[in-house]
Specification:
The protein is mainly α. It has helices at 12-17, 27-35, 50-61, 81-86, 105-122, 134-140, 148-155. The chain starts with 11 loop residues before the first helix and ends in a 5-residue tail after the last helix.
């Protein structure tokens, strides 16, 4: 099957599984990981692949994608045995503002609150585990502004 050029696909797994034309950017993973930077700021123009690269990075490291190494077969990152061993071995919290395109502050804040609330819900199992430190447990509690009752009461949001 011939590869297709895809426009607008922002999910790495989607891109690979649909056999779309993909310029291998997995060298970014190695470069970023080896740099050991505390903070990374990626600035590029619109439509330059930032979200796709973040999706690729998340799916490389995230335990949610453990055992999905086939996504990276044939790409440069997969040539290095050291990196094959760490694929799918880290907890990854991924937050993208790619779909936050609101026209005013109120709507933008609501959308970001939803994103954050969904992350809290996704990782709520951590509250009942023994992996969080006391500090982590104290930081876990949602501020009132992000809480579900507050969002329902002030914005009529039901968690969608």
């Amino acid at each position: 099957m011939a590869r297709r050029v895809a426009i607008g696909i922002q999910d790495f797994k989607d891109m690979i599984e649909k056999n779309c034309f993909y310029v291998d950017k997995t060298g970014f993973i190695k470069e970023w990981w080896d740099s050991m930077d505390s903070v990374t700021l990626i600035t590029r123009p619109r439509r330059f692949g930032k979200t796709l690269n973040m999706s690729m990075t998340e799916q490389f490291f995230s335990i949610d994608y453990a055992g999905c190494g086939e996504l990276f077969e044939g790409l440069s990152i997969w040539e290095d045995e050291e990196y094959r061993k760490i694929q799918g071995t880290y907890p990854v919290i991924s937050l993208s503002f790619a779909n936050v395109k609101e026209i005013n502050y109120k709507n933008t804040r609501e959308k970001i609150c939803r994103l954050l609330t969904n992350l809290y819900i996704k990782y709520s199992f951590l509250r009942d585990s023994d992996v969080l430190t006391d500090t982590g447990m104290n930081l876990w509690h949602l501020p009132e502004a992000f809480s579900m009752p507050h969002l329902r009461r002030t914005h009529g949001w039901n968690g969608d």
